[in-house]
Design goal:
Layout: E1 6-12, H1 22-30, E2 39-45, H2 51-61, E3 66-71, H3 73-83, E4 90-94, H4 100-105, H5 111-120, E5 123-131, E6 134-136, E7 139-143, H6 144-153, H7 160-170, E8 177-183, E9 186-192, E10 194-198, E11 220-225, H8 233-242, E12 251-256, E13 259-262, E14 268-271, E15 274-277, E16 282-294
Parallel strand pairs: 1-2, 1-3, 3-4
Antiparallel strand pairs: 5-6, 5-16, 7-10, 7-14, 8-9, 8-13, 10-11, 11-12, 13-16, 14-15
Helix pairs in contact: 2-3, 6-7
Length: 296
C-alpha cells in the first residue's frame, strides 16, 4: 500500500569524496533507516557531469516529494540547479571531500544522522547565487582559489591533505592579479591573491572563509585576500579554521547583492568546487530564498 507515503529519490555520485560511499547508502536504506511505512525510496547513480541535474528534473516531473543529493558540493550544486523555485525539499547526504554547504547548514557528516535529519523533514528556504547565470549554492572564487580547484580536479587523491599539498606546491609561484571589482555600483581595484564570493560561510573542511555569511540574508560576503609571505601561510590557515581571517591582516570583507568583476588575464573560477572558465565581465548575483533545503 503506497497511499500517504512520500516518494524520495537519492541521487548518488559514486565518485564523490575520499572513498566510494554508494554502498553505504544502499545498506542504510536496506536497514530501514528510511522507514518503508512512510517513504518509497529510489536510488539512482550519476554517470557523468551534469547527470545529477537531469535526474533531479526527471524526478520532479515524476512527482517525487523529496530529492536528495548524495555527494560533494558539486553534486549538491547540480541537484540544486533543478530544484530552485520548485518548493520541493532538497536533502543532502554529505559524501564529498569538503562538504561546505552541508557543514554550513549543520548537517551531520554521519550518513545515519544525516538520513535521520531527512526523515524528520525540517525545511528552510535559502538563497542561491549566480555567476553569469550559472547557479551556485555555497562558494565561488577567482584567483588562487580557482587555480587550486583546477589542480585538485586533475588529481585522483581526494580530501583535505590533497588540497594542502596543492596549496603548498603552487603558492610560491602564483602571482596576484589586479581586479576591477564593483559591488552594488561602487567600483574599486584590488590587487589580490584571490577573491571569494560567499553564500555559505566556508569552503568545506570547516574552513570558514566568510564566518559571518548567512545563506538566507539576500547578500553575498566578498572576501579579498592579498598574498602573504610563505612564512604566514600557517597563520592565515589557522585564522581560516578559526573563522577569524580578518584578524590575519591579509583579508578584507565587503557585502553586496550585485557584483561585477573584471580582469582580462583571469577567467577561471571555482564554482562550488568545480573549476570553470567564464566570460567577462563576470556578473555575480543572488536569488533570495529560492531553494528549499532539509536541515536539522
Amino acid at each position: 500500500m503506497t497511499e500517504g507515503k512520500k516518494k524520495i529519490i537519492f541521487i548518488v555520485n559514486p565518485k564523490a569524496g575520499i572513498s566510494p560511499k554508494s554502498k553505504v547508502v544502499i545498506e542504510l536504506l536496506a536497514g530501514n533507516i528510511i522507514p518503508s511505512s512512510r517513504f518509497i525510496p529510489e536510488v539512482v547513480f550519476t554517470e557523468r557531469a551534469g547527470h545529477a541535474t537531469e535526474i533531479a528534473k526527471d524526478a520532479i516531473a515524476r512527482g517525487f516529494d523529496i530529492v536528495v543529493a548524495s555527494g560533494g558540493d558539486g553534486t549538491v550544486n547540480e541537484v540544486a540547479c533543478a530544484m530552485v523555485n520548485t518548493g520541493i525539499p532538497m536533502g543532502i547526504l554529505p559524501a564529498g571531500s569538503g562538504n561546505g554547504l552541508a557543514r554550513c547548514l549543520g548537517i551531520s557528516m554521519s550518513y545515519a544522522l544525516a538520513l535521520r535529519t531527512i526523515i524528520r523533514g525540517n525545511t528552510k528556504l535559502m538563497d542561491v547565487a549566480t555567476v553569469n547565470d550559472m547557479l551556485y549554492t555555497s562558494i565561488a572564487g577567482i584567483g588562487f582559489d580557482a587555480h587550486v580547484a583546477q589542480k585538485f580536479s586533475e588529481t585522483f587523491i581526494r580530501g583535505m591533505l590533497s588540497y594542502l599539498q596543492i596549496i603548498l606546491k603552487e603558492f610560491s609561484a602564483y602571482k596576484p592579479l589586479t581586479y576591477k571589482l564593483t559591488i552594488d555600483g561602487k567600483s574599486m581595484e584590488k590587487h589580490a591573491l584571490m577573491i571569494i564570493f560567499a553564500n555559505s560561510n566556508q569552503f568545506g573542511f570547516n574552513t570558514r572563509i566568510a564566518p559571518d555569511a548567512k545563506v538566507d540574508d539576500g547578500l553575498l560576503d566578498i572576501c579579498v585576500f592579498k598574498k602573504m609571505p610563505v612564512s604566514q601561510l600557517l597563520n592565515v590557515g589557522y585564522h581560516m579554521m578559526r573563522g577569524t581571517s580578518a584578524k590575519s591582516g591579509y583579508a578584507e570583507y565587503f557585502r553586496g547583492k550585485e557584483i561585477t568583476i573584471e580582469n582580462a588575464a583571469d577567467s577561471l573560477m571555482n564554482i562550488d568546487g568545480e573549476p570553470i572558465v567564464v566570460d567577462q565581465p563576470i556578473k555575480i548575483g543572488v536569488k533570495p530564498l529560492a531553494l528549499c533545503v532539509i536541515v536539522p
